[in-house]
């Protein structure tokens, strides 16, 4: 499938600010800001990354609102150039850096890595191809490589980009012999799981994203102008309780005034520098770790048990935060 999956979506007029000019920090400023970001990551116990189309442009997949974005050119009556198809695209330096930051705990003998969770608006499947485990990611707008059964709701990885978008029937039988209750999934039909404008966000992905964003000490937006809601507002969820918020993007975003730090540079450059400062080695993409290259179908469903387990941690965090806030009020009254 062409990377211009937007052609398959319904017409929609309110696409936000298009074609805003990009700005670049000087090399000296980028180096200084990357040091600040690395220090923030070191001091944080729970770091969440919010990824947008800007992290995939170096793979040849155009963004939407950039100077040469799909919707920016569409407004001018033009079409973008596509260097690759979804199937040809490979994870970028940023995608592989994210893997390294999540798995860094194993190398540095920490309880967990430098990054605890990823919330993505991208449907291009590059997080999946990088080898990122499903337990570390919420895909709020779907994934072009995922087929979902209409009946049992389980998700499966496709070896190629699916043929449709907008949650349409793929006219294929469910790949599962059993549903979550141990019963045969009979007559289930697979659909693509890429959202169209009118669709609700996937419940478990949204709930996990909301909880992780709220408990985060540090939310980092990478390659997104944060214009689409609710995904664009999630990085702000930790601010009420004293969390930090960082933006790495070339264009201005909807929430610049609320950020503690803004780095205007290519995301690949920023994460390469940050990983080096943290002593984290970025691996190369490997087909052996890419679920789309495996011979057997792989499931991609978020287990309900994962949601329930983290929900308990989230509730405890909220309860403790309320107690701490109440204690502070009592102390100063």
Descriptive overview:
This protein is of the alpha/beta class and 333 residues long. It has two domains: 236 residues, TPP-binding domain (Rossmann fold, 3-Layer(aba) Sandwich), CATH 3.40.50.1220; 56 residues, Rubrerythrin, domain 2. Helix content is 29%, strand content 12%. The chain has seven helices and ten strands. The strands form two sheets. It has a six-stranded parallel beta sheet with strand order 3-2-1-8-9-10, sandwiched between helices. Belongs to the sirtuin family. Class IV subfamily.
Evaluate the radius of gyration.
Answer: 20 Å
**Fraction of residues in helix:** 25-40%
Strand content: 5-15%
Give the mean pLDDT.
89
How are the strands of the biggest sheet laid out side by side? 3-2-1-8-9-10
Write the CATH fold name of the largest domain.
Answer: Rossmann fold
Q: Which CATH first-tier class of the largest domain would you pick?
A: Alpha Beta
| Distance linking N and C termini | 63 Å
